[in-house]
Amino acid sequence: MVDFLDNLLKSALAFPPDRELGIERAHRALVPKPNNPQAKPRSIVVKFGSYRTKEEVIRRAWQKKEVFCNDARFYVDHDFPPEVLKRRGEYAEAKKVLKEKRIKFQTPYPARMRVFYDDGTRLYQDTTEATRDMVSRGFSVSVVKSPTTTDQEEIALLSTWQMAGRRRERGGDRESGAADGCTQFKKTARSQYKEKLQKFRK
To answer: Residue 183: pLDDT above 80?
Structure first.
């Protein structure tokens, strides 16, 4: 799998043949294997040894827009947790409208959206804030319902600054709130992984 992906990415993304991509491991997504030969193949999760290499691979794929393997198109993107993917997907209608209006936007991690309007840049923290403001600006979009408290907490725990926590001025220990949050997130992620693995083995 590693050798296959190394050759595929170098060929599809125009890397020099002698470039070391540093793929440490790769495996199929932990979902049941489809029985239908015509079904969409499972995603492949890749672990790079270098963050910069991973970002370069993704950037090249995005710049190329269409990447193929044996005439079949495939996509390269970040491996976001399910909670983040769900929230990012809620921007679909808003992004479609912005693209039609040729308004530049970005979707920073974990599930925010930055829009570059003519009158200035706005950074929305969630889809509800984004769609409400877009409606007030005259865009034809549906206002997305606010996420539940549980979903908001899970997304917040995935934010880098909250997971890292803050250190006290004395003693160098992390504050208890941040530590408890990290522990809760680790337990949630571990239980989700076990559940997926059990389904995969069935």
So the answer is: no
Encode 6-32: b = buried (16+ Cβ within 10 Å), e = exposed: bebbbebbebeeeeebebeebeeebee
**Structure confidence at residue 136 (pLDDT):** 95
Q: Any idea where the domains of the chain sit in the sequence?
A: 2-74, 82-136, 159-201
Give me 3's structure tokens: 């050798």
Write the DSSP string, the chain: -HHHHHHHHHHHTT--TT----EEEEEE-SSPPPSSTTSPPPPEEEEES-HHHHHHHHHHHHHH--EEETTEEE-------HHHHHHHHTTHHHHHHHHHTT--EE--TTT-EEEEETTEEEEESSHHHHHHHHHHTT---PPPPPPPHHHHHHHHHTSHHHHH--B-SSS-PBPHHHHHHHHHHHHHHHHHHHHHHHHHH-
Residue-wise pLDDT tens digits, 29-58: 888 888 888 888 888 999 999 999 999 999
Is 162:118 a contact under the CB 8 Å cutoff?
Answer: no
CATH of domain 82-136: 3.30.250.20
